[in-house]
Write a structure and sequence with these properties.
By secondary structure, chain A is α+β, with helices and mostly antiparallel strands. Chain A is built from 5 helices and 16 strands. Helix content of chain A is about 20%, strand content about 45%. Classes of the chains: A alpha+beta, B alpha/beta.
């Protein structure tokens, strides 16, 4: 059956299942409505999203009819494709909460569902968009989000090189895994190394609206990939406010220009991948009139990230390592939100993962992942002193995290996969504050057992 | 199925495995060999639409085509890539012998392109007959089969 018919049948079946799907999302959302930050800040945002989703779906439908006739022609073909994935996880921790209330009986509040459609209207153009629904404790309540919507124009497509540009909502390309982080099959674990791929500020890092220039140079034994993005970051959500400013604040963030670049060297058969990524995110905090500290001025936030990544494959062994330096520079921010000793910090993170392929379907892996929020105060001693000087209580182990894990992966088929992993963690630097409202009630040493089942098509 | 085996081999197995079990295991092993050996003997033919002006490509070009990085033929026709079922033996053989990677590696390459919006994945077909049919219908198509007979509008392309 052609893909076009499959997509139309799928949409028709969605209509039948719409009440059930709506209930599932609603059921999850209602649990978290009381304390969780809303994804949408305003109704107009919701309307704009709905409008763009409907427009895109209509465009795909129209094109699918054109593609139907295009398919049978011996000429150009529209190549309409639909793919998707779904992952359901279970997490149990002994102390602290990860993705919902994971102590006690554990939490099933971890779900990733994605649907991507793409079409090639002409030889040089390519259109693609992805809808994503993510449930992760109180941080993400499963609302459907437009993850990316790209118009890709390839200016040159030769054997030796190609280059072009992309417009729209683009996935931020940095590190080895950021651009496909929600798709379980492209990751090596259930949970990406939190020291680099933070879950708690993911909305900042996921995708941004702008333009990307890309190029590939094909060599004898591999290729060099180059991507450069200029865009506006998506900072409308509340999660980032909670993490960066210590709670929901009356004002809101607004994105300014963001620059991202990644260069990577890949050999064929993945024996070696080397890459360097750099991100510079600019955004502002716009206070309300009631917030007198700001005296009517916006506060600027600059976020810089540099990552060096490497992956080596030797026989059945894969070694992956990344090293990152992150800085947050706040200027004009109220002392109450971000005290001056935290206004300019550079953090450091790195991890090393070893994966061993037992056979075609089974693999085991182990990883050591380290995060320091401040490389000049790794274990939070100065932080505690500074907070005490302001009559507060700082939690030293919230300034770092050391995560050691072992795991196993079973690829049942090309469509189904099961993973299980066990984490031993010291420190709570990457824990979500939505699930752990009182940091002083968290424990320094904790364990997490995770299980996930994934499907793709 | 009645299998005739040399009395010597038969007695060897009986000695190794013991009596009746030996006879059964021997037949089992022979059936297994008959099933699996032919697959190892399958050759891979890379096939393209008969109108395609390109008659041979380098191994690097083949890798670039199947990892979806190269989208057009030298004459400007868009490349449409077809593959067989990801769990099938022929797909596995193709990946190992022609691309030098395991199926999961090329699958991951396609997933990264599809789920980040950077490209598409090949079209997965369910049988060799469907492969031959589609390659014959779509100009600019490329795929692989183990048996090239009874394929219309299709020519093999050589890899150097």
């Amino acid at each position: 059956m052609s893909y076009q018919f499959r997509y139309i049948k799928f949409l028709n079946s969605l209509v039948d299942y719409a009440p059930a799907i709506h209930w599932c999302f609603k059921a999850n959302a209602s649990k978290s409505l009381i304390t969780a930050p809303k994804v949408w800040k305003s109704n107009s945002q919701q309307r704009r999203f709905n409008l763009s989703t409907i427009t895109f779906t209509l465009y795909l439908l129209v094109n699918s009819n054109l593609a139907q006739s295009g398919w049978n022609n011996l000429g150009e073909r529209k190549q309409f494709q639909v793919h998707g994935f779904a992952t359901q996880g279970y997490i149990k921790t002994d102390n602290n909460n990860l993705f919902g209330k994971s102590t006690g009986y554990g939490s099933f509040d971890f779900r990733e569902i994605g649907l991507v459609g793409s079409v090639k209207p002409s030889k040089a153009t390519y259109l693609s968009a992805q809808l994503l629904s993510r449930t992760a404790g109180k941080s993400n309540d499963g609302e459907i989000d437009l993850d990316f919507a790209i118009f890709d124009y390839r200016i040159a497509d030769k054997m030796a090189y190609n280059y072009g540009f992309r417009l729209g909502r683009i996935k931020n390309p940095y590190g080895l895994f950021n651009d496909t982080r929600d798709m379980a099959y492209t990751r090596q674990n259930i949970l990406l190394p939190q020291s680099i791929y933070f879950e708690r500020t993911r909305d900042l890092s996921m995708s941004s609206d702008g333009v990307e220039f890309y190029s590939q140079l094909n060599q004898e034994n591999g290729f060099i990939n180059f991507q450069f993005v200029v865009s506006k970051p998506r900072v409308e959500d509340r999660n980032s406010e909670v993490i960066l400013l210590g709670g929901n604040k009356p004002g809101r963030f607004a994105g300014d220009l963001t620059f991202l670049g990644r260069v990577s060297l890949n050999t064929f058969n993945d024996k070696l991948i080397l890459s360097y990524s750099e991100v510079q995110l600019n955004f502002r905090y716009k206070p309300t009139d009631d917030e007198e500290d700001f005296e009517g001025n916006d506060a600027d936030v600059l976020f810089k990230l540099r990552i060096l990544s490497a992956q080596l494959k030797y026989s059945n062994l894969i070694l992956t390592a990344e090293y990152a330096r992150r800085s947050f520079i706040f200027s004009g921010m109220s002392e109450a939100y971000v005290p001056s000793f935290l206004a300019n910090t550079t953090g450091e993170s790195y991890y090393l993962q070893l994966t061993y392929l037992l056979n075609q379907n089974w693999r085991i892996y182990t990883r050591y992942d380290i995060l320091f929020q401040d490389k000049d105060d790794r274990y939070g001693r100065s932080y505690v002193d500074n907070v005490a000087a302001r009559n507060g209580t700082g939690v030293a182990y919230s300034r770092y995290a050391k995560d050691y894990l072992v795991g196993v992966q079973w690829n049942i088929s090309s469509k189904w996969m099961v993973r299980a992993e066990l984490h031993e963690v010291e420190g709570v630097a990457w824990l979500s504050l939505n699930d752990n409202e009182n940091l002083s009630e968290t424990k320094k040493f904790w364990h997490a057992g995770m299980f996930s089942i994934s499907y793709r098509f | 199925m009645v299998l005739y085996v040399s009395p010597y081999v038969n007695s060897l197995f009986i000695q190794l495995c013991g009596g009746q079990m030996g006879r059964i295991s021997l037949k089992f092993v022979i059936v297994l060999l008959l099933v699996f050996i032919p697959l190892h003997v399958y050759s891979q033919h890379i096939i393209v639409h008969s109108n395609n002006k390109t008659t041979s490509i380098s191994k690097n070009t083949l890798k670039a085509i199947f990892s979806m990085r190269l989208r057009t033929w030298p004459d400007g026709t868009p490349i449409t890539v077809f593959v067989q079922n990801s769990d099938s033996e022929i797909h596995r053989k193709f990946c190992l012998s022609k691309l030098g990677v395991l199926p999961y590696q090329i699958q991951r390459t396609w997933d990264v392109l599809v789920f980040s919006g950077m490209g598409q994945s090949p079209i997965e077909l369910s049988s060799e007959n469907e492969m031959k049919q589609k390659i014959g219908q779509v100009r600019g198509a490329i795929g692989y089969v183990s048996d090239i007979r009874e394929a219309e509008n299709v020519v093999p392309i050589s890899i150097y």
